[in-house]
Amino acid sequence: MNASPDDLHGTDLLAQEIKDEASRLAHHPLAEVKRLEHVAEEGDSPAAMLVLILAVTAVAAVILTVVISVSLVVYYQG
User: Fold this and answer.
1) What is the pLDDT of residues 2-21, one digit of tens each?
2) Please, is 13 exposed, middle or buried when counting C-beta atoms within 10 Å of its C-beta (0-12, 13-18, 19+)?
3) Which of 13, 25, 42, 78 could form a disulfide with 8, with the two C-beta atoms 3.0–4.6 Å apart?
4) Is 4 contained in some domain?
């Protein structure tokens, strides 16, 4: 898929955006997280909704991990 972004439409454009976001995130994670915060706030990118969904999922996973960990420690210590 070497088409220019102007030639892409619909799911092709979204797939290309996701591929680009993942590549940037893998190479420069801290800088990319800051950039993605701005992308999600502006909402101009087709990947903005995906960024928001991933952020909510990550926060929920962290909370769930903490709750399960605390529950297991309390169960096995008590």
Assistant:
1) 555 555 566 787 788 778 87
2) middle
3) 13
4) no
**Positive or negative CA dihedral for 48, 18, 35, 33?**
positive
Domain assignment present for 1: no
Q: Which residue has the tokens 């701005």?
A: 38
Residue 56 lies in a domain: yes
Q: Whole-model pTM?
A: 0.52
Q: Under DSSP, is residue 56 helix (H, G, I), strand (E, B) or coil?
A: helix
Residue 1 gets which letter from DSSP? -
Segments forming the whole domain that contains residue 39: 9-77
Domain count, the chain: 1
The dihedral sign for the CA sequence 51, 34, 43, 1: negative
Q: Is residue 63 part of a domain?
A: yes
